[in-house]
Fold each of these.
Amino acid sequence: MGCSRVGLTLLSLLVPLGFVSSTFAIQPDAEYLAREKQFGKQWAAEDEPIQQKLAALEKKFGKKPNIVFILADDIGYTELGSYGGGKVRGFATPNLDRMADEGMRFLSFYSEPSCTPTRAALMTGRHPVRMGLLGVLFPGTAGMGLVDEEVTVAELLSEAGYTTGMFGKWHLGEDPGMTPIEQGFDEAVWSEGNPPWWGFHKGVKRTDNAGYVNMGAFAWAPGPEGFPYDTGGIMSGKKGEEPKLVAPFSLELYNTMDTDVADGVIDFVERNAKSEKPFFVYYAGKGNHFWGAHPDFMNQPAGTNNSAQMAEHDHNVGRLLRKLEELGIAKNTLVVWMSDNGPMYSMHPHGGYSLLRGEKGDTFEGGVRVPGMVWWPGTIDQGQETVDIVQVSDMFTTAASIAGVKNKIPNDRVTDGIDQSALLLLGEGKSRRDYIFHYNKDKLEAVRKDQMKYRTKPKEKHKNCYNIQHDPGERYPDISRYCLWAGPGFGRMIQEHKAMIEKFPHRVQKGYQREFDYPFDPMK
Amino acid sequence: MGCSRVGLTLLSLLVPLGFVSSTFAIQPDAEYLAREKQFGKQWAAEDEPIQQKLAALEKKFGKKPNIVFILADDIGYTELGSYGGGKVRGFATPNLDRMADEGMRFLSFYSEPSCTPTRAALMTGRHPVRMGLLGVLFPGTAGMGLVDEEVTVAELLSEAGYTTGMFGKWHLGEDPGMTPIEQGFDEAVWSEGNPPWWGFHKGVKRTDNAGYVNMGAFAWAPGPEGFPYDTGGIMSGKKGEEPKLVAPFSLELYNTMDTDVADGVIDFVERNAKSEKPFFVYYAGKGNHFWGAHPDFMNQPAGTNNSAQMAEHDHNVGRLLRKLEELGIAKNTLVVWMSDNGPMYSMHPHGGYSLLRGEKGDTFEGGVRVPGMVWWPGTIDQGQETVDIVQVSDMFTTAASIAGVKNKIPNDRVTDGIDQSALLLLGEGKSRRDYIFHYNKDKLEAVRKDQMKYRTKPKEKHKNCYNIQHDPGERYPDISRYCLWAGPGFGRMIQEHKAMIEKFPHRVQKGYQREFDYPFDPMK
């Protein structure tokens, strides 16, 4: 078949040049292969000390490193204190700022433009378009989600001998086969659907209060008869079991969700800290979600749900990091923290903020450039900050690499996520990515290469090209000054990217609205 | 006269309430008096430990503290690494970031909206509208500038026994009586007019190169006959002498200006370090001025004049701080660093950047919210950052206070600058200002109180009010949610502010264009 022939062609091209076959279990995108031709020798040389470092750590601790993924929700690039927010925005994020100070802070970390897509990319290392998962899954969507054929980071790490757990917002489908306990997690406690949608639950009245707003202030909703979302709550289960609804929806549950999720994560960490097996835990927080505020965190100067949720999430991340230290396992634990996309302005001021242009759902920087950082005391040098480009899918491949199972990533599909262990362990300048394909649903809206960003079909003529260093706010497109010259390079990148898609075609998923008699297609 | 009667009325009001008369040499604006009624006792209590601290320092070092003002040019709020810029913008500012780390970083520091006005406010502690100095002084403007009746910080500090020096861009008028050596500085080396205008000098050809641009790329200029600016260069002099032109204009001189200015400052510091007298030096740098780039600093990733100038200025501030340390006088020297206004986008990408809305010449945050910090090892605690509101005029009053001559500030006029020594010496939360009157030329365009900003006459209806914490980018005015309630408060503030102007009327200046046969009024 086409796929394997390409593999062989590339193999015959690369092997004589001395490229290591360890990268070969994975099928990267064309642009990575072009870079590998240029930098492969250098990368192979860098990989040696990394492998030695990881081997020494494994010897010292008697197991592979634990891995924690924390995915926060809708937190804009300029929200944390360490990114120019914090006090400036009327709240404080001392724990997240401390995490940044003690680890590596990414200044060019990119998500997908919305919630479900970023979660899909984090779990599989693939742009969600490749698996037919385009936008946000709406409540009651069926026939759509993370299908069994996709290989998740939880499945890979299970193969590597990890105990795996997931807590929080899953939002990758609810059909049989799509839940976290069927996607590689040994145990999970997760929300059905997308928790903010709980605000539309038929039990919620417009006069009910969730934090600083009553539900009628922001959300129009039809009456119970026509209402699309009448179930929901907290699901729980273990691998091999049937998922159970353990707590039906309530606004109170939504208000305290991040803290409840963190409690679950901390409990999981405590139970697994002294095990012979390393653990992987995925903390999918509530983050920053316009309505709902934990009553204990409503005393922020800004007086918004956003500020209460930022303070709550910051507190919970602090609790988790301190717990890792107390348990004496911090030095054998990689913690990755990131946001899933930019803020949602339709809920201003409760839905977060970014000084960058655009919001959740956009491929402008405000939608996809998000705060992100890694923490691993003793292994990742503290006090680092870098503009090296990183994409959320890279965390999949990097985790697989650090756990020693990168060769288990299937090569019958394109994996977009790039192994960034060199960046984490060797420091600034070592990112193996200088490009991103920015998809919005099924459209390739923008391509990034180095400091240049090319928009394929801007709404206004000639507003194709931005220099992200000169103009992080994307206000001054200037085709003559920068893009006329960059254009042909972008053309080649896109052409080769599309050729790769022809060889490894996208999965197609067709969702529908359950409990309703009309078809529902969130792709439209 | 009206003025003294008001003084007496206020005195009779305040003295029975126990307010200290030390604040009485100065005539603050009405809003400050209202706050003093509320907080006067607390402030008086805080002043005691400050005075003790300053007295102990004077005893230890045998003289009052040295004071350094560094005013950078056109540097936007988000440019320094410590404010979210630096690498993100394609250059590095390690020395300014170190200064922030070792001192106090202001997150709500406000300038006037342009160059001459900010310089006037810094020198006199007064909004420039009060002295009839409205916009940027254009080349060849005469009959306008810092008039003799104004009292400068250099004059006050001279009275306090300081040796005073000024180096760099003066831009406060060129008529007799207006030069730095006639305005309190013992010595000065300064630019005639506004150095960037040198680019229009009749000797400059459109094909001449200044950094990354040739002059024709950005600046249209008429031929030599009609050209308004045919003189210019570096002036020099000592108090009591006639100013001399020591170096005629050249593009080379402009390219290296910040470094040459820093050389002058460092030489002054070396000559005065061991003196029995403390020194005050005003370093008015080139900063960030669209054309011109020092050839030694053109290797920045961004490849712009802005990046070269940022790197150059950063280097020079680093040299100065290290020199203070080498000379063993850092612990007796207060260094204030600030920008004079936001970036100038008409010169993008060479004229700087801010993620905030607006630019130089605007009272939107992008025009007036600027980076600012103070450094005084051992006296100002390191690692502080604060959102306490500070205005550039406060540096005048604070310097006078620290030098013990606040009582020499004349009380026959309003001084807007507030003594911020409590904020500097006691830390966050101690700002005595929670308001700003944002003037643009002679228009009161906006009023700030706490986190709210009220625009008096927005171009679009109902876009009056912004919550600067919720919306630092000023995108979401919402009169119903926030401003309907704040409105009456702003009304009172403006009314009392205007009443004070009636009592202490603005000076009126009327400039004209010398060497031309038509009158020139930059106020229009």
Amino acid sequence: MLFADRLALAVRESGSITCVGLDPRKAQLPAPLRDSVVNDSADEWAAAYTQFCTEIIDVVVGKVACVKPQAAFFEQLGPAGMVALGQVIQYAKKAGLLVITDGKRNDIGSTATAYADGYLGENSPWGSDSLTVSPYLGEDSLTPFVEMCDKRAAGIFVLVKTSNPGGGLLQDRLTEGQTVYQRVAELVTEFNSSRLGESGYGPVGTVVGATYPEQLAKLRQAMPGSWILVPGFGAQGGGAADVLVGLDEDGLGAVVNSSRHIIFAHARDEYRQRLGDARWQDAVAEATSAMNAQLSR
Amino acid sequence: MLFADRLALAVRESGSITCVGLDPRKAQLPAPLRDSVVNDSADEWAAAYTQFCTEIIDVVVGKVACVKPQAAFFEQLGPAGMVALGQVIQYAKKAGLLVITDGKRNDIGSTATAYADGYLGENSPWGSDSLTVSPYLGEDSLTPFVEMCDKRAAGIFVLVKTSNPGGGLLQDRLTEGQTVYQRVAELVTEFNSSRLGESGYGPVGTVVGATYPEQLAKLRQAMPGSWILVPGFGAQGGGAADVLVGLDEDGLGAVVNSSRHIIFAHARDEYRQRLGDARWQDAVAEATSAMNAQLSR
């Protein structure tokens, strides 16, 4: 089944548009996992990251649409962290969860092909369902990723309008009535036009931040064939009303990411006293349910 | 010593502005290295990549300004490839060569910090001198990298005007007399202004393709404090005259990358019959000398 259709199915079956961001960070891991690291070695931290993420997966499977491991935090540990990333992706897939690997990779020509093959290819050491991709290098830098999507029924998510305050510096620049991010959106629509699945969506998803709800609503109209990954919900300030405008009439077309608010829920005021580090998995479960409730219409 | 000053020293001491791109690819490795892979395992290929790159380093050390391993090709092999990337970086540094890791990484906030720490930080598993970075996410996505440069006397190279035909799609868009890539150049100049070393250059380098010599010449003027990494020489069609406009009056300020033309020189018409796969290292040596000669004024 095509990636876009698998994502539609995952949203329907889970009844959730939540994407759980798997962003392990040493300092914020629950105490039991931090304490398991005795010698401060990369291998130990990598094992702690794997355990943290796989336990989260156990908690959220069936309750969310997908998970999004953030490559940077695994990569920060070095090769041992990359092993952990592969383990987490494989664990999530076996559990039946779709995986968006957040790497924001990009390059030109055969180098882009190497990234596409590396993360999405037949013998991929990571074997992700999809990958986030940066568009600065233009359409020919995206083509190798799109071709890999065709070959492997995979997906990509191209950065369009990001959630950070500085994102507008380049993305909002207006040329003949069209911003840079709108030009990227147009390109994505072109890529998808001949590749739409039964769900009405194509393999080229996009990233549009929850912190820009007006733009999100317009982009939903402008890119009818693109799944939108919406970061910035919760910790970054976007609310439910801000993100629901990313959905189509059938409640499809967008997944909303939350990382810190869910995975480090044990440290939030709502859960710290009652659950705390010892019952961090319960905090993840409650925070996931709370987010699903917020996002259900 | 600051990264920019170390690069100036490397150019002066080697008498070369050549940067050798370390882009190992399975199919193009010289036969002796391809033949060393018996079981087609990632570990074997990673070992072959390490041997290939370290032998190239042995050949070019003292004759070139720096080397640029391309993360994508190592990453394509999975964690084993990332181990090889670390080995290659360490080998080059011990040999006295400056290393630009070509990862085109970027993200926002603390995630960008994780990348910066991962590749340039104190306990970096890769320990590179510098990293290529993509600017689509704006200034606040670059700040964590610049701060890591300050902390570690490291460098980054921000994509400005890339060598591929599709690069113009976003980069050339004109808003109130300024293109997107000129806006990035301006931002780079701001970052460097308070960070210039004795060489007159700062830690925030840029990537400007050899395939756009007019823009390269103008960018040289517009970004007096930025080292320019110039890809696209040789295999991608840029000639010597096209890239020399990237230099300042002292012959500093730009390094010119060549990957395939040097590392796979054994397969080029000039060297194939006489040297071929068996003497691929000699082909690398001759191709390096030839490129240095082309670029010497």
